[in-house]
Design a protein that fits this description.
Elements: H1 7-27, H2 35-49, H3 70-83, H4 87-90, H5 92-113
The chain binds iron/sulfur cluster and zinc ion.
């Protein structure tokens, strides 16, 4: 169950769902990802596996390292912009957990700065 997964595992599930949704609605894929999205999926999963922050992971958008190459960063931004608002309809549990994770992270950063 997604509730009991680690922060990185939850993020992998949510971002994976976003890529799948994007590919289905934008590229008409059914069941399997197109080769472009499949490459992006592998790239993102590898980056998350190697994320040095582990359980303290910030959102990739607010990360001080930004381990993605610029082309991939732009691609994943495009996916997020497209799939993000639709997640509440297609994957509400993932969307809510993702919002909670990001909210907790933002508040941790705020309390460190204050
Ligand atoms: S961008 Fe930052 S938070 Fe995201 S996977 Fe890379 S190192 Fe981790
Ligand atoms: Zn695709």
């Amino acid at each position: 169950m997604i509730f009991f997964k680690s922060r990185i595992e939850r993020e992998k599930i949510t971002v994976g769902a976003m890529i799948k949704l994007y590919c289905r609605l934008e590229h008409g894929s059914r069941g399997t990802l197109c080769s472009d999205c499949d490459g992006m999926f592998d790239y993102v999963m590898k980056k998350l596996d190697k994320c040095p922050f582990d359980e303290d992971k910030p959102t990739c958008l607010n990360c001080s390292i930004h381990c993605y190459k610029s082309v991939e960063r732009e691609k994943i931004r495009q996916v997020m912009r497209f799939s993000g608002p639709k997640m509440l309809i297609y994957h509400p549990i993932h969307a809510i957990l993702h919002l909670i994770d990001n909210w907790i992270k933002k508040n941790e950063v705020k309390s460190i700065r204050n």
